[in-house]
């Protein structure tokens, strides 16, 4: 395993998380714009529903962001311990998704979810030490 510094480890972990957040928010936004796939399928069949999804630029951009996240994770795991990289990137993604859902998708993120975000953030602090 190649040795990387603490800052480099967290930059790699953050790259995984940021690209995952982008992918999640873009695909969720695309699916909301596309609408109910059951209704589309009822009118146009399964091929119509598939066409509605894959012809969405926002959806395709989200898939690309998810691919970047996946390959970033592969690279990160080549130089960072899995016991740090995976839980840290998942936790940062969880926190980032809550904020992005609130501010980009205008979701109602209730008090209980914000409390869980705080607990996850505390876990990252413990993990980082």
Précis, in short:
The protein is mainly alpha-helical and 129 residues long. Helices cover 85% and strands 0% of the residues. It is flat.
Please tell me about this protein's structure.
The protein is mainly α and 129 residues long. It has one domain (6-128). It is 85% helix and 0% strand. The chain has helices at residues 6-34, 37-54, 57-79, 82-103, 111-128. Helix 1 (6-34) packs across helix 4 (82-103) and helix 4 (82-103) packs antiparallel against helix 5 (111-128). The mean pLDDT is 95. It is found in: Cell membrane. One of its GO terms (molecular function) is transmembrane transporter activity. InterPro entries: EmrE-like, Small_drug/metabolite_transptr.
- How many separate structural domains? 1
Distance between the termini: 21 Å
Number of strands: 0
Helix and strand composition category: mainly alpha
Main sheet overview:
none
**Shape summary:** flat
- The overall average pLDDT, rounded, is 95
Sequence stretches where pLDDT stays below 50 over 5 or more residues: none
Output the number of helix runs: 5
- What is the percent of helical residues? over 70%
The radius of gyration is 17 Å
Q: Indicate the proportion of strand residues.
A: under 5%
Helix-strand topology string: HHHHH
Protein name: Drug/metabolite transporter (DMT)-like permease
Transmembrane segments: 12-31, 52-78, 84-105
Keywords: Cell membrane, Membrane, Transmembrane, Transmembrane helix
Membrane topology: Multi-pass membrane protein
